[in-house]
């Protein structure tokens, strides 16, 4: 990939010398030249170079002022100063210049600047790749988590022979683990599923359903009362007739905190 370069100098002879030096280098493409700062800003905006060589002492806009304007462009290029005035070096590097080359021009010195630009751009490219990979990795993890813990707020799919029943979550009173099966209980019917209780807990709306015991998940909206059972244990009475579920001591602490009691 070629390094795209713009040359800016009000002295045509200096531009010719710099152009010749750059043309001898591998992977360098001169995409524009300007003889003043205003033209330099326009060319930079149009051509999107990787590196701009700037003279400092120019009419209308100095090289320093031109660099300041270039830096305001979207995705600005690197820039290096080429000048007869070494006293501006501090000002140049305050603008985050890539390099500061004092005339007369030397081919070896310009080659160093070009190599420095290539290394900087490669470093930035690799950094961007790492950032993109990290972001992609986090997105992938998030998507996997969503798929694993997908919540069906309106409907819950129950796979039965030859069909899938879409059950309203609000109709589920509680779920009970019975060996390798998990049974969902509604007011009218029982549904045997192939979910584990952990999978079920991940898929149900956590604002409504609560794991009260290793073997039970209940719909908190269907809890009628919680009765002390002694030594920190409780029994949950559901509004489903004749159903009581033991609330473990560990889960009782979590539920009390959640209910604010």
Commentary on this structure:
The protein has 261 residues and is α/β, with parallel strands linked by helices. It has 2 domains: 3-138, 3-Layer(aba) Sandwich (Rossmann fold); 155-259, Beta Barrel (OB fold (Dihydrolipoamide Acetyltransferase, E2P)), CATH 2.40.50.1020. Helices cover 38% and strands 31% of the residues. The chain contains 7 helices and 15 strands. It has helices at 12-23, 37-47, 63-71, 89-94, 107-148, 197-203, 249-259, and strands at 3-8, 28-34, 51-54, 78-83, 99-102, 155-160, 163-168, 174-178, 181-185, 190-193, 209-213, 216-219, 223-230, 233-238, 244-247. The strands form 4 sheets. It has a 5-stranded parallel beta sheet, sandwiched between helices. Strand 13 (223-230) and strand 14 form a beta hairpin. Helix 2 packs parallel to helix 3. It starts with a strand and ends with a helix. The model has no long low-confidence stretch (mean pLDDT 86).
Keywords:
alpha/beta; 261 residues; Rossmann fold; OB fold (Dihydrolipoamide Acetyltransferase, E2P); 5-stranded antiparallel beta sheet; 2 domains; 5-stranded parallel beta sheet
């Amino acid at each position: 990939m070629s390094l795209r370069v713009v040359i800016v100098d009000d002295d045509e002879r200096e531009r010719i010398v710099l152009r010749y030096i750059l043309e001898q280098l591998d992977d360098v493409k001169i995409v524009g030249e300007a003889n003043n700062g205003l033209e330099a800003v326009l060319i930079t905006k149009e051509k999107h170079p990787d590196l701009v060589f700037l003279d400092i002492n120019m009419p209308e806009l100095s090289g320093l002022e031109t660099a300041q304007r270039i830096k305001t462009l979207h995705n600005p290029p690197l820039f290096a100063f080429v000048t007869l005035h070494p006293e501006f070096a501090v000002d140049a590097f305050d603008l985050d210049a890539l390099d500061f080359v004092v005339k007369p021009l030397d081919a070896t010195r310009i080659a160093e600047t070009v190599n420095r630009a290539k290394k900087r751009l490669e470093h930035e490219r690799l950094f961007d790749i790492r950032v993109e990979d990290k972001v992609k990795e986090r997105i992938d993890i998030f998507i996997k988590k969503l798929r694993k813990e997908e919540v069906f707020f309106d409907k819950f799919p129950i796979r039965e022979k030859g069909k899938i029943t879409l059950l309203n979550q609000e109709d589920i009173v509680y779920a009970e683990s019975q060996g390798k099966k998990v049974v969902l209980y509604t007011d009218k019917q029982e549904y045997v599923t192939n979910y584990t209780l952990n999978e079920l807990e991940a898929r149900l709306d956590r604002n409504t359903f609560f794991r009260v015991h290793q073997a039970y998940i209940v719909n908190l909206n269907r809890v009628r009362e919680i009765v002390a059972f002694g030594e920190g244990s409780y029994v949950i009475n559901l509004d489903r007739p004749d159903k009581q579920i033991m609330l473990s001591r560990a889960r009782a602490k979590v539920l009390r905190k959640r209910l604010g009691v």
